[in-house]
Amino acid sequence: MRIIPVLAVLTITLAACSSPGGPAAGTGAGPVALSVAEAGKRLEANRWELVYWEGTPVPHGDNGEPVILTFAEGRVSGHAGCNRMMAGYELGPEAGKIAVKAPVTTRMACEEGRMKFEAAFTKAFGAATGARFEGNHLYLDSPGVPSLKFHLRELQGG
Asked: Residue 75: which of 60, 59, 93, 87 has the closest Cα?
């Protein structure tokens, strides 16, 4: 009867994967449901680089300076493709909810394509109503707009 030991190992393995310390807890590939407080800590512990926005070329390397945002104490700041961007933000009241308040940018002139990207990005970012984490990625969701996908970057000097 070898079936019982195999089933026992399979059960223990599945239990370990679904426990709070298993892969889904922090760096696994699946979505992670975080409380408002946990989401705030995760947002503020890292910088976030925009790596994917369906249908829109994302600036990086020869295509322009990357979009990198830093969240701290209800404020978000960073680079929006051409200019510096600042905004307020609030998480909650339910887990997975975010409200971005009045994003603004500096007013330096850049190449026309970068200016168009920045205007579209700022509008999509300002419309974000959902924030979710999957592995090392942050997704900001807006109604009727493809999700903004950010990759975790460590804070500088921290």
From this structure: 87
> 9 vs 3, 4, 25, 28, 55, CA distance in Å?
10, 9, 21, 21, 45
Residue 113 CA to residue 25 CA, distance in Å, equals 39
Q: At 158, which amino acid appears?
A: G
Residue 67: closest CA among 109, 107, 26, 119: 119
What is the reported pLDDT for 62?
Answer: 63
User: Within the chain, which residues score under 70 in pLDDT?
Assistant: 1-32, 61-63, 156-158
What is the DSSP-derived secondary structure letter of residue 15? H
Looking at residue 157, its pLDDT comes to 62
Helix (H) or strand (E) holding 59: none
